[in-house]
Structures are given as C-alpha cells and as structure tokens.
Specification:
mainly alpha; rod-shaped
Length: 76
C-alpha cells in the first residue's frame, strides 16, 4: 500500500506564485494611489492602466498559486 505524498516541486511553484502575488499586492495599489494623486500630469492614463494591470495580475497569481498548491497536496 502506497502512501500519498506532497509533490514538492509543485508546492514550490505554488509558493513562488504566491510570492509574486504578494509583491503585486503592494506595488499595484501604491502605483494606483500615485496615479490618482497626479491626475493633472500627462502620463496619468498610462500610469493608471499599468496600476490596474498590476492589481489584476495580483488576483490572477493569487488564484493560480492556490490552485497549484491544491494540486500539489491532493493530486494522485
């Protein structure tokens, strides 16, 4: 009878995705705040778009990281 074990390679990959998410969770809102603080500047729209993309990237990497960690724990 074989015991189930955690796939450590997938677990490390999932934790890396969560680390990327953590970085994006701080940089996205910070840049978003800077964009809203400087609405009179000509680069306002560009900085706003970049900040929104970073925030969406944080959500993406969060769900991807959780999914990969769950695969490493419960996949046969």
């Amino acid at each position: 009878m074989e015991t189930k074990r955690t796939n450590k390679d997938l677990l490390v990959k999932g934790i890396q995705n969560m680390g990327i998410c953590l970085v994006l969770m701080f940089t996205g809102p910070t840049i978003l705040y800077l964009a809203f603080s400087n609405q009179d500047k000509p680069t306002y729209i560009l900085v706003l778009i970049i900040a929104i993309l970073l925030c969406l990237g944080a959500v993406f990497f969060l769900f991807r990281g959780i999914y990969i960690i769950m695969q490493s724990l419960f996949k046969d």
